Amino acid sequence: MTTQTEQHGAGHDADHGHGLTDAGYIRIALILAAITALEVSTYYVDFGPLFMPALLTMMVVKFVMVVSYFMHLKFDNRLFSLLFYVGLGLALFCYIAALATFKFFIS
Amino acid sequence: MADVAVHADHGSDHGHHSSTGLSNNKLAMWLFLGSECLLFGGLISTYMLYRGRVSDGPHPSGIYDIPFTSVSSFVLLMSSLTMVLAVSAAQKGDDKKTNLWLLVTALLGSTFIGGQVYEFTAFYREGLGFTTSLFGSSFYTLTGFHGVHVSVGIILLLSLMGIIRKNRVTGNKAEVVELIGLYWHFVDIVWIVIFTLVYLIPS
Amino acid sequence: MAIIERPTSEAAVPALATPSASLGALKRPMTESGWKSWLFTVDHKKIGIMYGTVAMFFFIVAGVEALLIRLQLAAPNGKILNADVYNQMFTMHATTMVFLFAMPMAAAFANYFLPLQIGARDVAFPRLNALSLWLFVTGGIVLNLAWFLGGAADGGWFMYAPNSGPIFSPSNGVDFWVVGLQIAGIASLIGSINLIVTVLNMRAPGMTFMKMPVFTWMILVVQFLLVFSLPVITVALVLLMFQREFGATFFDAAAGGDPLLWQHLFWIFGHPEVYVLILPAFGIISEVLPTFARKPLFGYPFVVFSGAAIGLVGFGVWAHHMFASGLGPVSVAVFSMATMAIAVPTGVKIFNWLLTMWGGKIWYTTAMKFAIGLVLLFTVGGLSGVTHAVAPSDTQQTDTYYIVAHFHYVLFGGMVFGLFSGFYYWWPKVFNRMLNERLGSWNFWLMFVGMNLTFGPMHILGLQGQPRRMYVWTPQRAGEGFFNLAFWNMVASIGSFILATGILVFLINVLVTSRKGEKAELDPWDARTLEWLTTSPPKAHNFDRIPVVHHLDEFFHRKYVEDTATHTMKRVADGADLVRAEEAAADKHIHLPGPSYWPLVLALGIGVLGLGTIYGIPIMVVGGVMILLGSFGWVLEPSVADDSEIDPPSLDGSTKEIAPLG
After folding, report:
1. Contacts of C15 (CB under 8 A, 6+ apart)
2. I want to staple B72 with a disulfide (CB 3.0 to 4.6 A). Which of A4, B115, C172, C309 is the partner?
3. pTM of the model
């Protein structure tokens, strides 16, 4: 197990601190901008039953993109991801459960 | 046993060793951000629960100015790009470029805060005070908290610029920029959630 | 796991920029003795001792509050306290015990022993550690200031609406309570991040996660609970503050608000908090039981993983505090099941402890007695806990003395006994003095008898229907026969004074032994973990040479070797000799972080800012300015003192530094 660990560590070390090139970041930002434009368009165009799922999906995509690329989680050690996503997961679980007891999702 | 040899010089060297090989500061920052998820989660949930409870004053759908907020959201989103460019410059050891991008980030952040001040003022004129309704209280609490986070971020960015210029950064400079960058991006992703859940999805 | 043992290559880390002076105007407080060496210290051991001292002070304060409550309820128509003061008394008793005694006392143990147990020279962020301490002290002072400024908080420790509102709590007590807890919360949050990073990153070479002592493991779990639960109470307190100071109506049912929102937020924090209180005690006795049973802990991985499981499931059971609030059948069923499930890992632990003692050569020291007391009393409390998990039964018990009995069995019988076990076990390590065992025995038995006499009858009182927080009772309502309230209330009150006598004996023990107690040997208990592989008390840099770890219970395995023929452990070295050998092979250049003014300045600033939320904007501005200045001082100060600042300058030119950051 230790050996595996070391290898993983070494492989990771190579790309630590690099992430994307500046051009890569700009590309990500353009995608984020495009998604935001699409989000705003829901205000003007009727998406029908797709409205809510589409908006939530776009929100999650943007969120994950910023976290993975701008915050380097995709390139960094998995321990950082673990610490962050445990917090996020607990937040989702606790607050959704609490809101559910208020019958928030039924009405 | 392999790990033993690795650490034989632990504590006797000026270098920076750690059991995981990761930076203490970065671990602490990610833990803090994980914790902040539960802070903003609580404020967002409070808003979600109360957004429809309008005993008095304007209703959410009647007061939000989506085009305006879209622009300021876009500004904050782009400040994340300039922030990551600052981090990238800092990792290349380019102080000048780092400071330039930090300045742009701080300016974009200030624009966002300016927009928020304008928005709050406009809402207040339209009759939505802090105590007007549960909607008002929870809206101002949530967005105000976020605004305070952005403002703290701006102070951090400006201070960092000053400290870099005077060359008084204690510790690893690129990492300090990265840490403040992480905080800044987090504030941005919180707004990504707020923008959708609060503004775009009508109650 | 990818997180174990990977070094950073030297080249990847640029040399640290260390400007020569801290801030010009202020000289670093480098003295190594006197009050300044305590006030500005960043040494985790000094900080631990200060945490413990302040926590002990608050333990006595809250204990006196408890005695006043018991005096009032001893006989019908009590006249000791009026209703208003009584409300303040039980609110502050609980708040003080939980936030100003239990948590900081656990922090004291964690601060002192966690770095020692993992073979580190300090925590990851020494200055943040000092900040945590001073913020906790500030929070404690703010909470208790209310007594002198118009009355303390009086809404019960979980401060339900509408009790927390201006109609039922018109004094500033609740405002002080909110601010004080908020500040204490920041202290715990910073402390928890600090300790997690310490455990992740500062372990001695060779100490993998599964070679860490159980105490360290339990503290790690607790810090994760804190880091993810404290922000929730922060939200709750912020909403309550905005309601009281700025006129919002978040929890005001009359204005359309939902009092249940507070309950959810409070208990999403509050239930993990329960495990925050008990797990450190579990950790302590998991060290004490093997040492005095002279056997390794039975099923180490089970104890570790059940602790982690308790932590995780602890986030999913909060609504069992709210069964009587009309959650609806589905929620009640779900949370009831989850609550019963959490009894499983807890039971696993109990059995592990029992099997650790099974067949051991048990040495009945005071520490061991308290540890066994915990196993016994916690089991009683745990069983009454299962009766609350059953929702129909809980609806009968909610807000009666039965609940009071339950949580005192787990918190006093569990947590406090664990902490006392820790006092007796580690006292020689910290102060180089043995606590007297004869007085210790009196201490234990008085507390054990007193505790059962106080809280045992409360089961009966509760099932007979005596409501919690009731400030007076009349003979007409006491009933008759064996189960009459008058008799058992009297028994509980007498018990409480026996209990208090036990604690008094502890204090006497401390006083007596500090004057003429016997000096401790280096390894008085034939202990098992790394904190004993150094002098008592440990030197400022903890270890002369950072130990290299090969085993769980490393210190034990350096003293004992298995005889392959008979499969018994044979003693091959003396603990004291091992310590002296380490001393002889000491590292030459040990770097320690320098003391700092800024944690204290920052903590004071946050305190002033907090009081400003009650007394007005100008005071807030003063606090804000202090925080800003303190932060700049902090950031600009290198964490390592320059040679020129050390007074007198070090002789052989060696500098002191352990953690480059903080």
Report:
1. B14
2. B115
3. 0.91
